[in-house]
Design a protein that fits this description.
single chain, 281 residues, mainly beta, Porin, 14-stranded antiparallel beta sheet, 4 helices, 18 strands, 11% helix
Length: 281
């Protein structure tokens, strides 16, 4: 499909929101930032990988002036991060033309937790022309979807991440919640941050890892630690709710791949990702 799209919306100033406070970094010296990883972003055995990508992504913004947006970010998760102090060390591999190639490591207690290679640029300067065969997910209206706010309090305590979002799951792929997974390996729904902060390029790094693992829909619930995740941010999202779809096709050797698409309220595919994760423990 070939279509022209309207100009990109302006970047959102989210200062003061929970997400922006929890990804705030403080410069400590050339290429080094400190951050306090928030307790509210924990799921399973560690801090959520998408939140960590956004933290690192925020630090990388300062490495290449004039190129504020993540375009491609590949992360290798070396060990689980925990709430509390962390350090992000970043460096410029190459900065020239319209994009910069950057690298970063996030460490805690003297040990690297994540290593990242990223391409940054200015999404607002990209052409508006779109040619795609991707199909936007069809979701029931918000009021017909299942809010995770109704999850049992015990689950919310063990997975505080749930309370960071207003997430409404498509009931067609949420039968796992009552022991009846569809077997399709799909989890999808409407999503926004709990305080209704509007989406921007940086928050898309969070959204590509925000839903429960697609293995839940295969009858395999539980924490699925990410080994590697590559995210592509394709455009600055329009304000409003996002549609997110996670899907897996191959669970083998104790691992599975998960593909994610994020669509904005204007019907544009604004982010894509693929990750390799360990099967739920």
């Amino acid at each position: 499909m070939h279509r022209a799209v309207s100009p990109s919306p302006p970047r959102i100033n989210g200062m003061g929101t929970e997400f922006d406070r929890d990804i705030e970094v403080t410069a400590n010296g050339t290429g080094e930032h400190t951050v306090e990883l928030g307790e509210g972003w924990v799921v399973g055995g560690g801090v959520n990988g998408g939140y960590l990508l956004a933290v690192i992504g925020n630090a990388l913004r300062e490495a290449a002036p004039g190129k504020p947006d993540p375009i491609s970010v590949s992360a290798y998760y070396l060990s689980a991060s925990t709430p509390g102090p962390a350090t992000v060390r970043s460096r410029v591999i190459r900065d020239g033309g319209s994009v910069a190639t950057l690298a970063a490591d996030l460490s805690q207690d003297g040990a690297d937790r994540i290593t990242v290679l990223a391409t940054y640029g200015d999404l607002s300067g990209l052409p508006d022309d779109v040619r795609t065969s991707a199909v936007e997910p069809e979701l029931p209206p918000l009021e017909q979807c299942l809010p995770t706010s109704a999850a049992p309090e015990k689950l919310k305590k063990t997975a505080p991440l749930l309370s960071r979002f207003d997430l409404r799951l498509d009931p067609a792929y949420a039968g796992w919640a009552v022991g009846q997974p569809s077997g399709n390996g799909v989890v999808q729904g409407w999503i926004r941050l709990a305080d209704a902060r509007e989406p921007d390029a940086l928050s898309l790094l969070l959204m590509v890892d925000a839903l429960p693992p697609a293995t839940y829909d295969l009858g395999l619930p539980g924490w699925a630690p990410t080994l590697e995740l590559t995210a592509h941010v394709r455009a600055i999202p329009a304000p409003g709710w996002l549609k997110v779809r996670h899907a897996t096709r191959n669970v083998a050797g104790g691992m599975f791949e998960e593909d994610c698409e994020v669509w904005d309220s204007a019907g544009r595919l604004v982010a894509q990702s693929r990750q390799l994760a360990r099967a739920p423990r």
